[in-house]
Amino acid sequence: MLEIFSFPFFQRALIGGVLIGGIAPLLGIFLVLRRLSMIGDTIAHISVAGVALGFLAGIYEVWAGLLFALLGAFAIERLRGTYKTYAELSIAILMSLGLALTSFFFTLGQGFNMDVTNYFFGYIYSLNNRDILGILAVSIIVIALIGFHAKEYFLLTFDEDAASVSGLPVKRLNFMMTVLTALVIAVAIKIVGALLVSALLTIPVACSLLVAGSFRRTLIWAIVFSEIAVLGGLIAAGLLSLAPGASIVLLLILILVMLLVWKKGFRAA
User: Fold this and answer.
1) CATH code for the domain in which residue 98 is found
2) Which residues contact 241 (CB under 8 A, 6 or more apart)?
3) Radius of gyration (Cα) for the chain, nearest Å?
4) Tally of domains within the chain
5) How high is the mean pLDDT of the chain?
6) Within the chain, how many helices (H) and strands (E) appear?
């Protein structure tokens, strides 16, 4: 059974999964604390529309998905600026657009060999060397930019008005965060799929909020829970012939449920 670890496709899956498992919660903690969790789902649906168009146009589908994700990120920020009082409206509008475009491109591609199912539900075993390089590049960009602007994002997360008054470029920082989220989602949908990708952004953070008492510890625990789920889910899927994306997310949910039960029992005691 352990010979699966010697297969190149499984090694690539582990590398890609570990990279995404590290950077997704790094962005997710800011999105969750700012009540923007649904941005992940929205950009993921827009990205799949790009993937479908990529199949139709005969271009590398990941790049097409990335382009659509970035366009979606730009559109979300523009709409959030227009509907300041109803910022969540931009997410609903763009999600509807993403679903409509995906359905439209599917219809156009009925006579073609379009297999985008993997991008809905994920198939990490299909990662190739080009995908790994793309994930690595995005990981470096995310870690570098978040690390460089860590103090600014910390203030922006907990008090956007104070950040604006102190002279921080709030609009630019918000746009950068949305673009980074789009980059991560574009390279992650092949791992867990568009329908599950937001789980990696939010559920590890939800788990860590139950056990951590500070921002730094919440971030560290979120990454730990994410990596445990990714590695555990991949190994279980490889050994038991399960769907890898679903295994990762279900393990995350299991961790969350266990923590909720533990915390409830701890309080009762």
Assistant:
1) 1.10.3470.10
2) none
3) 19
4) 1
5) 85
6) 12, 0
